Task: structure prediction
Amino acid sequence: MRIFEQIESQVRSYVRHFPTIFATAKGSKLFDEQGKEYIDFFAGAGTINYGHNNPAVNEALVDYIKKDGILHGLDKATTAKKKFLEKLYYTILQPRHLEYKVQFCGPTGTNAVETALKIVRMVKGRSNLISFTNGFHGLTMGAMAVTGNAFYRDEAFINRANVTFMPYDGYFGPGIDTAFYLRKFLEDSSSGVDLPAAIILETIQAEGGVNVASFQWLKDVEQVCRDYDVLLIIDDIQVGNGRTGTFFSFEEAGINPDVVVLSKSIGGGLPLALVLMKPELDQWKPGEHTGTFRGNNLAFVASTELLSFWDNEDFSEGIRYRESILKEELTKLVDKYSDLNVKMRGRGLIYGLNFPQQGFSRAVSSEAFDRGLVIELAGAKNDVIKFLPPLVIEEELLRQGVAIIDESIAACLERKEDTIKGTLRNDN
Result:
């Protein structure tokens, strides 16, 4: 690991939590240079929904390169883009009766968020935006301004004007309707909250701690937007692409966002981001919002292959089946370790276990890594273990991964008990 410590910036993060050199990956497994096998419950922070090195994708990419397919095309028309747009329209948008124009921006999620914020402000002629507590939307300046996490915001010296934060669903605990709270601020012209161009939200706050919005809350927020001529942006970067069981995370809520931002798994592991917007919002002048890598042709090839997972309902049904297993196994853990006051929350194949004891979640994650499981944390205090396996994970591996978490919790508790006993002996 010496070369990484010597040359790479201090900003590196995941390598500190998973201190090994990964060499290969297949399906739901990673392998390091020593050949050690790891079950992947991280999936590239939600980028590898369809598994590592999907054979159909690899074959299509190799074939495309061998035929000298266009690698870099700016926003020119290419065969790869044409096939992707056709597949996206006929497989995803048309069957869901969604009328969106597609804009390709820079290749990351934060690029998509920046693009969305720019267009809604331009169309509405208003500067204010509303975001929510614990939301995460990216780390470029505009996206960071609508991100709630203090760790990312404190020393960025960004202009925090023109963004108002409101409480997310459940922020005050049960029984307090934060959608009504939001409405009260907008209906009172003297509340101090300027009428926003748009409201941006995640249906499940993944980085924020796996906070799940109820369908009714999402409907109520959408209605607030309609009543006050405010646009609704859904950030589906991490929890879209099937993570909740449907392609878009908002489908089951029955809402129709004005703008949707996608990245991560839409590129099949390759950089790709896009903004879906209702046609009337597409008011750009040609070239008004550009970027050298607005549309990755290799990612188009990969994504076209992966969108075939959605040709029928089998894939969604498979996700729901895996969710039932994950939820059942995690419920057993919550019951088994009831003394720890563990809280479970999630939907689809994104679940979180919240351990209120400071540092305990990190200890469990580290112990799990030593035992062959890659899993990360979420929440403002890193107190939530976030379960984010590939959507194609085998049932046996899913159960095995949860069993490793069980073993890791037990090992951390035993270590903690031994430390207490040792302290008592020393005191005596």
